[in-house]
Amino acid sequence: MPPSRPASRSRELQAGRLTARIRALLRSVVFAGAASLLVSTVPAAASSAATSTPANWLELYNTHTNETLRVTFRDATGFIPAAVEQLNQIMGDHRSGQQTTMDPQLFVLLVDLAAAAGADPCYDIISAFRAAETNEKLRTNGGGQARNSQHIEGKAIDVRLKGVPTTRLRDLAVSLERGGVGYYPKSDFVHVDTAHVRYWEG
User: Fold this and answer.
1) For a tag on the chain, would you pick the N or C end, based on fewer CB atoms within 10 A?
2) Do the beta carbons of residue 191 and residue 173 sit within 8 Å?
3) C-alpha dihedral over 159, 79, 101, 115, to 10 degrees?
């Protein structure tokens, strides 16, 4: 018959086993809780960051030259000159080869329009800067261009926003009240400019 252990020693062993079980249980609960918290909060934080941070970039595809440009045009200090120059180039007059200094607020307007649509700022360019001579030739040939078009001033652009119907783009542009908005359903594009507020359909 094995010798019996003292009662105090037995109680110590039982208490030790119980403490070990409790510690193991606590570790499993803490681990599970942390994992659950990680799963539930990370996507929400990422989503919030994606929607609360204003876009500082544009992606533009020129439908006449087949050029594509994706560029960050501003940072915490303001507009980035080299990026603005690239935007001026892709928005140039493809007929004459001339360029101008586009109104930077036009870039901001495009970004804000895309944000209002819940889309990335990726646009097809139908027309941006037009030299006065180009504008006059188009107008004389019955193109419907205004004599003093904002395109000549570098304050206008005709676009499509990828993934967004032009009717919705038009409505959003009108709601922003940031300049002129023209809708051209036959050619399926929207004109926006940074001049005074006005609306028309061509």
Assistant:
1) N
2) no
3) 10
Q: Could you tell me the pTM of the whole model?
A: 0.73
CATH topology of domain 57-201: Muramoyl-pentapeptide Carboxypeptidase; domain 2 (3.30.1380)
CB–CB of 162/124 below 8 Å?
yes
- The conformational region for residue 142 under phi > 0 = left, psi -120 to 50 = alpha, else beta, is left
Residue 200's nearest CA partner among 150, 141, 165 is: 150
Q: How far apart are the C-alpha atoms of 183 and 191, rounded to whole Å?
A: 6
Answer whether 63's CB lies under 8 Å from 128's CB.
no
127-140: string of b/e by CB count within 10 Å (b at 16+)?
bbbbbbebbeebee
| Strand intervals (E) in the chain | 57-62, 68-72, 74-75, 78-79, 122-127, 156-161, 180-184, 189-193, 198-201
pLDDT digits (tens, 9 = 90+) for 133-183: 999 999 888 877 888 899 999 999 999 999 999 999 999 999 999 999 999
Is 121 within 8 Å of 114 (Cβ atoms)? yes
Residue 13 corresponds to which amino acid?
Answer: L
